[in-house]
Amino acid sequence: MAAPRCMRSFLGPVKRAKIIQAARPYTHTLSRTKSSKAEADEDREIREDRDGKLMDQLRTDMENGDMTLDQRLQDMGLDPNEYKRLWKSQQAANERLEAWEPRTREEAQQRWKDMQNTPDHLTLLHMYKRAGVEPIKVAKERGITLPTDEPPLDPKTQAALDELRAPINVRAVHLRPLRRTPEHGVPVCDLQLRTYSIRNLLLFADFAVRAAYYMGLAARGPIPLPRITERWTVPRANFIFKKSQENFERVTMRRLIQIQDGHPDVVKAWLAFLQKHQYHGVGMKANIWEYESLDAATRAGYELKEGDHTRRREGSVLQKVDEILGSKGFKEAMKGHKNEVESRP
């Protein structure tokens, strides 16, 4: 066990060691304090000196006649034809710039007045921008066409496009989902959606309500349910670092969609459709109720005979299957097969 700090002087005095560090040479110190900017400046100066020496050597060789321009360019790894083409284009650009620049003050003022009276689109937009006005907005308000605008369509083509209307299901995407009014209000399915991201939850809930409408189901919701908040405290280390802990939190958001007065088969098809197109990060949990008719109470304790499917919902289908299996043509076709075919309830 470590002794308290106040008792250390009595138990054993601590010896102080004197540390002597040799002085660094001034050259080493200056090299360490050298900044990266100074190194970049030195590299640029060295590069400029080298380029200047190369240009001086090139000029000297051309003046003395020791080497022609084409030979010198080939020696430097440049294409003479490309170099001449770029040189001519640069000279032409310089000549156009010199011709455009005004020579006197009166000429400059006259050119400025001409630009103000008959400005082009780009000049006008720059003037608006300098004045603190949004150029594109002002251009649209005043009917000025931008260089990036597409040319207008023919009036007949534009009228034909205006007459076209988007399909109702495309326009319905931008509106609230359509709903059907339940006749009796008997709930048959409760679909609960859970997620950790509210955007994914809202998108998939809207998709589920729209799918229910197009499948002929009356849906209520999505109804917000209370959030589930879970928190954990995990120690970062053990022993003396027990107080160093880290907290975690997980919030689960939920929505409820209730289907009323729906046929069980349609409800199962709706759930299968949602499961096929399930959105990532959204979980589903469904509770389904199936209601029997009042005649079900009278069938309590009724003894069903083997092969009697008349009281079942799919009784007509099973009866048709038995009729096919017992037909003469089917038996003749199944003569060579060992396994017998039978209908199971």
Order of helices and strands: HHHHHHHHHHEHEEHEHHH
CATH topology of the domain at 180-288: the name is Alpha-Beta Plaits
CATH homologous superfamily (4th level) name of the domain at 180-288: Ribosomal protein S10
Number of strands: 4
Share in helix: 40-55%
Mind telling me which CATH architecture of the domain at 180-288 this is?
Answer: 2-Layer Sandwich
What amount of the residues lies in strands?
5-15%
Mean pLDDT: 77
Helix/strand/pairing category: alpha+beta
Distance between the termini: 79 Å
Morphology call: elongated
Give the low-confidence spans. Answer: 6-34
Radius of gyration: 44 Å
**The biggest beta sheet, please?**
4 strands, antiparallel
Account of the 3D structure:
- There is one protein chain.
- This protein has 15 helices and four strands.
- By secondary structure, it is an alpha+beta fold.
- Among the domains are: 25 residues, no CATH class; 109 residues, Alpha-Beta Plaits, CATH 3.30.70.600.
- It has a four-stranded antiparallel sheet.
- The longest helix has 29 residues.
- The two termini are 79 Å apart.
